Every structure is written in structure tokens, then in C-alpha cells.
Amino acid sequence: MTRSALHRVRRHALFRHAPFRHALVLPAIIASHAALASCGGAFCTLLTDDFAPGAWTHTGWRGELRLEYLDQKTLRSGTHSPDPEALSQEEAIERESRSTNLIGSLDYRFNPKWSVALQLPLINRAHSHDLRAEGSDSATTPESWAYTRMGDARVLARYQHIPSDDASTLFGLVAGFKLPTGSTSVTNADGAAAERTLQPGTGTLDLILGANARAVLTPSDAMFGAFTTAVATNSHDDYKPGNRVELSGGWSHAVSPSWGTALQLNYLHKGRDSGEQAEPDNSGLDTVQLSPGLTVALSDNTSAYGFVQLPLYQHVNGIQLVQKWSLALGLSSHF
To answer: What residue stretch is flagged as signal peptide (predicted)?
Structure first.
């Protein structure tokens, strides 16, 4: 399939999902998340809720709302940023892909060992690029898309093992699926379908597997780590997203009974996409990001957090758009 048949859209460095990642520690709150998967959108790779390394000390329900913002407007080729005007051989020049995502999560813990979660993303995305006229190095035609749609849902199950009575150390396993609930046929005002990585959904059923661990060092400090992989089990309309591997580790510190700080290091590997509707040469990436954050306990059952994610290393295949920073804000409550 030619680039013109794909609307000449270059593959982006999309940090979806998957699934934002971060952690927080307060006297009764340790939060993190180890099962974010590909989600048909640009998502921060952070740990954010009680579902993974954090000890969930109650049975019953927990809800979370997380707002993510990413503005991808820097072209990257390998590890450097090329001059867009110097890409005379390219049929399209990517300009910007901006995503604001609202992710709702609902968890239920049956007992100290077993819990389940449902995650639903609402994606607001605006993308623009310039199509280069055939046979011309300068004449271009702008093309853009903008939409707000539901993305792919995720259903997760988790087993937590706490070897000691004080829960100072714990280990967990996560398994689940990303469901093909998001649209794969969004078009712009001219009726042109967005390229597959711009769509709110991938159309595939993805298997999610993960493991995590946490250790309390002092009454105010804890360390944590998490591993997650997501693999598409099928293709949809001649498109199959690349496999994802995510590794996160970090430290969290309770400054007071109400305030806490956290620092994470997040690694993401995404394999090349495949299929007639894919662009393998311009998909796939490796990133390492530093994620400092703050948390605050609003009540015994409710907490809020904010994190900034700063790229330390970005390597992409082909030419893709990347962001210089991303932001995550969230609210979590037990009930």
C-alpha cells in the first residue's frame, strides 16, 4: 500500500496507553498501575492507580479519573530532529498531533488477593500535516483531522501476594484484554479517513500481561517496579499494531500525612506495525522518560495527583512526531 493511499500520513511516536503510568505514597495510600495497553491514542506511560504495586488495603470499589495532555509537534528520525523543510523526498510533512485524553477506571476488590478493573478512555485529538504536491519540493496542501471519541476499553484482573502481615513487601500479576471498542473509521470534513495510528481504536483484541513488586523502605518511603506487555491477537482491516513492552520503576516519599512526592523512570518499546494499512518503516520506537509528581490526600478515601513526563531518550523508526513533555492529572477515590 502506497503512502498516498494511506493519505500520506507518517507514523507517530504515540505514547498511548496505554495506558499513562505513575505512583504515590501517603500514609494509607500507595498508588500505581501496571497494565496500560495500546489504546488507539497517545497516552503517557506512567503508573497511576492502586491496581498494581500499591497495597490495596480494603475490599470494595475504587474509581479514578485521569486527564492526560500530549502535544506532539517535533519531528524525529532515529534520535535526531530533522528540518521539516529539508525532507524533500517525503510525500507528507507532519506538523502536529495533539491529544487530550480523559480515562475513567473502575476497580473492584473481592478479597486481599483478587481484584478486577475496567478502563474507558475518551480521546480528543487534533492532527495536521502538509501533503507535498507531486513533482514539487515546495508546494503543499494542508490536511487535518479533529475528533472526540471513545477509545478502546480495557478489562483487567489482578492477583496480589503479600508475604508479610504488615504488607511491607508485595508482588502482583496482571492479565487482561484491550477490547476493540474504539472506532477505526474516523474521517475529516473532506471525507478522508485518518491513518490507522490516528484512529481512536486499533480494531484488535490485545492480550495484556504484567508483573509488579513494591517494598516499603521506611514509614515514609517505598520503591516499586512494574513490567507490562501487550500483544495484538489479530489484525483488523489489514492492520496490526506492534507489540508493546513497558518497564517502570521508581521511588515515592510521604512528605506529610497529606502530601507526597514520587519520581519514576519509564521505558517503552513499541514494535513495528504490520499489514497493508500499516507503515512498518515509520512505526516502532524506544523511549525513556523521567516522571516527577506530587500527590495530595483530600480525605481518608480520596486523593489527587499531578505528574509531568520528560523524555530522556527517544529513538523512532523512520520519521515520526514526538512530544517534548506530557502532563497527567488525576483524582482517585475508594467507596
So the answer is: 1-37
